[in-house]
Amino acid sequence: MPSDVRVRFAPSPTGYLHIGGARTALFNWLFARHHGGKFVLRIEDTDMKRNTEEAMSAIYQGLEWLGLNWDEGPHVGGEFGPYLQSERTELYERYLRKLQDAGHIFEDQGAMRFRSPREHVIVDDIVCGKIDFDLSNPATHPDMTIRRPDGSWIFHFVNVIDDLEMKISHVIRGEDHLSNTPKHIELIRALGATPPHYAHIPLILNRDGSKMSKRDEGARVEYYIQRGYLPAAVRNYLCLLGWSPKDNREKLDIDEIIRIFDVKNIGRSSAIFDPDKLHWLNGEYARELGDDEFYELAVARLKSSSVTLDNYPEKYVRAALQTCKGKINTFDELPAYCGFYFTDDFDYDPQSAAKHFTPESKPRLKAVREAFSALETFDAAEIEVALKSTAAKLSVKVGAIVHPTRLAVTGSNVGPSLYHLLEVLGKETVLARIDRALAMF
RNA sequence: GGCGCGUUCGUCUAGUGGUUAGGACACAGCCCUCUCAAGGCUGGUGCACGGGUUCGACUCCCGUACGCGCUGCCA
Is A214 a catalytic residue? Predict the structure, then answer.
């Protein structure tokens, strides 16, 4: 039996996809997938002035990146199209006439307004419960305008009409619309139709509790795409804002989420977006990546950074990146983490140098150089033996020679496994870099 | 101002009358260890406040405070 669950995500093209909007889309998508229903994308572009294809592509790209495929909407079509409100004006005219004929409309300075029946409206919300709104006072609940004097349409009207026309069964949207819902219901009833089911989900807030706005860093999905986050991780994190599987699991496969997702389990209080937790979760996903997958993503990220890979054979690049796998949480950390592989011209981190380029370091580095130059095979295992025996010979801890060596060869005291990194770099390069460091003393 | 919604560690959350209030992120310490991560262990911090109801309230009711939303010819 096919499901008659039909939900929609109805953004207005403002040029980017807001992270809160993405979560609203995600919850709609999950609901549709859970019930085997349809997820519809509708673009609310009634404000014609700045609605371009470029502005909309940010929405399409963001949704696609998150894997939120729509069953009906732009690009894919569907039997209830068109899915751009700017192409549906005839429909709105028809509905306006219908309301006029029934005597629900009056004109006010050129604008068309809907005369409220002025009654109590009970919104029976799936997450918020039953809420009684008293719309009897015109002073506090003025008759809403549905069309401006210039002929353009107001959101409340076209949104409601399209939900009706597109046979939307459940309206899952941000809580900021909760107070608007009784007005929408009035309109629907005046049309002789039955309202959809409603589910208003809590908003996502900034660290300081303020509403996330377009100015905030991290408020747009684009930001996470650019910074090298993994879509599965961002999607997983978004699921956890206001929803929980209730069994302490956090990292969840999307198929598992679809299976257990239930709107009724969505919380009622707003949630603060925590970049630290997303960062951690992204690391959890990044560590699970396959070698090839990691390599592809890493190369893609490095290509858009100042690191140049052109002069290095793929085998070298692969080996180098392999030593970074599991060490980073997001790919934008990569250029700084592995840059030393792809240039000999790097600076020594001043704080590390102060600590590890000391007078005692010189003889140690020299000893390391000697041990390395004597090696026949320059691989991680041999390097480890050489470093440890050198440390033993000098009667110092391994760390006492490892740190200066790492600093000399990479410019930093943080990075991949030293033994493996040296193997990748190769004997010649390593010796040259130690010489360069030695010249500092 | 009016109306609506909300309030469990710093943050995300579990919890629906009797729990040592659980987990995760972050933070601190320890272990592991070639650094950093990862992993393991340990630690601290929480039911906004005041009244009820009840033998017993984080849980139910009423207030207060605080936050947020709506109150547009924005969406």
Answer: yes
